[in-house]
Write a structure and sequence with these properties.
This protein is of the alpha/beta class. The chain folds into 2 domains: 8-123, FAD/NAD(P)-binding domain, CATH 3.50.50.60; 141-249, no CATH class. The chain has helices at residues 51-60, 80-88, 178-191, 200-216, 232-242, 250-265, 278-310, and strands spanning 2-3, 26-29, 43-47, 66-70, 93-96, 99-102, 107-110, 115-117, 120-123, 141-143, 148-150, 166-167. A hairpin with a 4-residue loop joins β10 (141-143) and β11 (148-150). Its cofactor is FAD. Its EC number is 1.-.-.-.
Length: 321
């Protein structure tokens, strides 16, 4: 059994906000958000300042009367991207500390004692792992409020049930779908006998060492499956160790890191920047050339098939020039 159901469908809701059950106005998770139009003219509180929180807050700034962006933890992020957002949308957008309580009269109270009247609260607070169809007799559990699945060797194989049970897609903060393809290829190679797993004891020891190393580095347990966000090179090392795919080219690695850095600096304009290095420009140019060549070959092959199948009345590849 290969569990590849993803982890972006079961919303993670805050457990430290009082009054959520008594709040009679709008509440939803970002998973249910589609367009800003239903919130036109409203005062909206967005909980969470990560990617989804910033994206939705910016989307709402176009139609909402007020947008209040609240931190989902004790720290209020003062990043360059956040500063630019506030500078560009200060007439609508406000930044707050985390929410302490939702009041029945519609007030949202923050940790610093301030409050605002709101029509809707949108929780951009991530997702929890959930496998309601899976019963392993306790061999695989979900712990730490839904943040950790384990034990999993390299986030894929539970040592006591490997290789008959594996997980593809548990890892967070990785290149998608590239990293999941690496995992899938590894699982396929193990199941087909082309690769072997370490002994159960060795896999379990590896899992424990990973957890101890993260703890020693001060990384919270909730980030157990966060790979590139903590140790970017681990993502590439995984591919080199367990996959037969060619290593990712250096210009692609550089493009990933520069894009992330640009996004952290300005979430609204990072896609429009044209200050890539020479190696990235050459890499993209070469990639576009290969893609165009592959597309042309595909079109010629399709015309050939049509010509052969019809026998007459079709344009063949030899006449396209």
């Amino acid at each position: 059994v290969v569990v590849a159901t993803g982890h972006y469908s079961q919303p993670m809701l805050p457990s430290d906000i009082e009054g959520m059950g008594e709040w009679t106005r709008g509440q939803l998770h970002s998973h249910s958000y589609r367009t800003p139009e239903p919130f036109r003219g409203e005062a909206v509180v967005v909980v969470g300042c990560a990617e989804s929180g910033k994206d939705i807050a910016l989307d709402l700034c176009r139609v909402a009367r007020e947008v209040h962006l609240a931190a989902s933890s004790k720290a209020t992020p003062a990043t360059p991207a956040m500063s630019r957002m506030l500078a560009n949308h200060g007439d609508v957008l406000r930044l707050h500390t985390r929410i302490r309580r939702l009041h029945a009269d519609g007030r949202v109270e923050f940790a610093d004692g301030s409050s605002v009247a709101a029509d809707t609260v949108i929780y951009c607070t991530g997702y929890t792992y959930s496998f309601p169809f899976l019963d392993t007799g306790g061999a695989v559990t979900i712990e730490d409020d839904g943040y950790v699945v384990g034990p999993l060797f390299e986030h894929v194989f539970p040592p006591s049930l490997a290789p008959s049970l594996s997980f593809v897609g548990v890892a967070r903060k990785v290149l998608i779908p590239w990293f999941f393809e690496l995992q899938a290829r590894w699982v396929a190679q193990v199941l087909s006998g082309r690769r072997a797993l370490p002994a159960e004891e060795e896999m379990l020891r590896s899992v424990e060492e990973h957890l101890r190393a993260r703890e020693a580095a001060g990384v919270p347990r909730k980030h157990t499956h966060n790979i590139a966000g903590i140790e970017p090179e681990k993502m590439y090392e995984f591919g080199e160790r367990y996959s037969d795919l060619a290593p990712l080219e250096e210009w692609k690695k550089e493009l990933v890191m520069s894009s992330i850095a640009s996004m952290m600096a300005d979430v609204e304009t990072f896609r429009d920047r044209a200050d890539d290095s020479e190696s990235v420009r050459k890499g993209v140019q070469g990639w576009r050339g290969l893609a165009a060549h592959a597309q042309a070959k595909s079109m010629i092959a399709a015309v050939d098939v049509e010509g052969d199948g019809a026998g007459h009345g079709r344009v063949s590849s030899s006449s396209t020039d």
